[in-house]
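re: that chain from earlier
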Amino acid sequence: MHFSILGPLQVRDNGRIMTPKAHKLRVLLATLLVHNNIVISVDDLIDELWQDQPPPTAPQALRVYISQLRKLFEDCDSADKVVLFHDSPGYCISVDNGMLDVVEFNRNWEIARVAHEDGDHHTALQHYNAAARMWRSAPLVDLRGGLLLQIATAGLEEAWIVIQEARISLELKLRRNRGAMIAQLRELCAQHPFNERLPALLMVALYLSGRNGESLAVYRRTRQCLAEELGIEPGEDLRRVHQMVLDTALDPVEVIDSWIA
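^ sequence. v structure.
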């Protein structure tokens, strides 16, 4: 049995799709999964399912949904590896290692981060890429949850951006896959127009490819966007990359190392 939340919610069991169809049941399952091994109170689960307008029967309805999830797990071949239990003041789900994509995502990220800090670039890239491949789309994009899911998914999206920045910075530092990195960075810049690290990395990638004019054009567009939308000038990191392109005596690897963790 495998649970996927890095994209639309999906439950699979030996090739069978077992994802619940009812929206509130999917929200409940997703809320428990993103807090794997953590007890979520009944009150918080009710708020997540009904936000500001829970019906008087909400506690009873929640118990019905919990029973339906337990029945779903019992119908799966690996039901013994999924535990959904009551523990005051609420409920908790516990799944075995390898059954929840976000657990593997975080595990690969941590291995990559430590290897990166230790200078083991091969291992770091291997696990950054492993984490990135698990990302199907925005987490739980198919659900309309409450505050708990909003906070959890926002944190996952931030983690994904950090992983992308670190992964691409290493590829550029090792002078690898520049064409692929440029294409990926253009897409990321379009998706996150106010993230200054992404255009800075795109400028470095273009600079390393001998495309200084395009690199400077990225700076001009980013500066214009920041000024028009936010009323601010580019930060120090982006300005330093800009200076690097103007002054070709600067080493782009040293520039990357100065601001990428």
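The first helix runs from residue 23 to 34.
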